[in-house]
From TrEMBL:
EC number: 3.2.2.n1
Record has Hydrolase as a keyword: yes
Cited SUPFAM superfamilies: MCP/YpsA-like
This protein's name: Cytokinin riboside 5'-monophosphate phosphoribohydrolase
Entry GO CC: cytosol
Gene3D superfamilies on file: 3.40.50.450
Signal peptide range: none
Molecular function GO labels: hydrolase activity
Coiled-coil regions, chain positions: none
Species of origin: Gordonia asplenii
Length: 265
């Protein structure tokens, strides 16, 4: 074995974020995130139930602290747009460059840009915002694998709990923009749709970027959900499908004009 091999073998792992802290953990410890400890019901022993009864009420304080930290960090934020998209998007691809363009166009239009703070499409949007000279915000999450806040984030927070993080995405945004993405992006998209549809939040633009990627989903909503009367035909209009950064900005501006016209005088 060479000296280089020995050095590599002895290199420590990179660690992970647990809320705001960065620590080293074993693979088993990495898998047991704070969210999982809160939600996992697989441990059904009497001992596990007794531990939950003892610990769960105190978890409320930790949950409360995440809301306080988020509200405090973002309280002075002006108008912002939340951008979702895949962490797997590779640098140099068309989708990555589209994300950079979206972030930059939103910045030039006067919006701060808020993402999940990770790599891929999130990094691209943060990069565009940074280049436009507007606040570039990243809201990270504790995961069972390493995901650092990307280098283009100006204001970064790391959350233990998905629901606290999601509240920040909604509370401080004037629009949602979805670049191509996977389950996480779909989760955020449909949660936003549900909040708007049920009037839990004032209707605001939800923009899908990339006709080739999103048109199949749009067709399924129309041809299955609407046809089966699972959603109303008007609900489809909550989504806007565009292809360019300029169209993203125009879709947001158009919806805001419509809402202003509908507002009571």
């Amino acid at each position: 074995m060479t000296t280089g091999d020995t050095d590599d073998a002895m290199m420590p792992d990179e660690g992970c974020y647990v809320g705001p802290m960065r620590i080293r953990r074993s693979a088993d410890q990495l898998a047991m995130t704070t969210d999982r400890r809160l939600l996992d019901a697989s441990q059904r022993t009497s001992e596990a139930r007794a531990q939950r009864a003892q610990k769960d009420p105190w978890r409320v304080l930790r949950i409360q602290s995440e809301f306080v930290s988020g509200f405090d960090a973002l309280r002075d934020l002006g108008e912002a747009v939340t951008v979702f998209g895949s962490a797997r998007t590779q640098r140099g691809t068309d989708t990555y460059e589209l994300g950079v363009g979206v972030g930059e166009a939103l910045g030039r239009a006067g919006f701060a840009v808020m993402t999940g703070g990770g790599p891929g499409a999130m990094e691209a949007a943060n990069k565009g915002a940074f280049q436009a000279g507007v606040p570039s915000i990243g809201l990270g999450i504790e995961l069972p694998f390493e995901q650092r806040l990307n280098e283009w984030v100006d204001i970064g927070l790391n959350f233990r709990y998905f629901f606290a993080r999601k509240t920040m995405f909604v509370k401080y945004a004037q629009a949602f923009v979805c670049l191509p993405g996977g389950f996480g992006t779909l989760d955020e998209l449909f949660e936003a749709l549900t909040l708007v549809q049920t009037t839990k939040i004032t209707r605001f633009p939800i923009v899908l970027v990339g006709s080739d990627f999103w048109s199949g989903l749009m067709n399924w909503i129309r041809e299955v959900l609407v046809a089966e009367k699972m959603v109303g035909a008007a609900d489809v209009d909550l989504l806007q499908l565009v292809d360019t950064p300029e169209e993203v900005v125009e879709a947001i501006a158009r919806t805001r004009r419509e809402l202003d016209e509908q507002a009571p005088r």
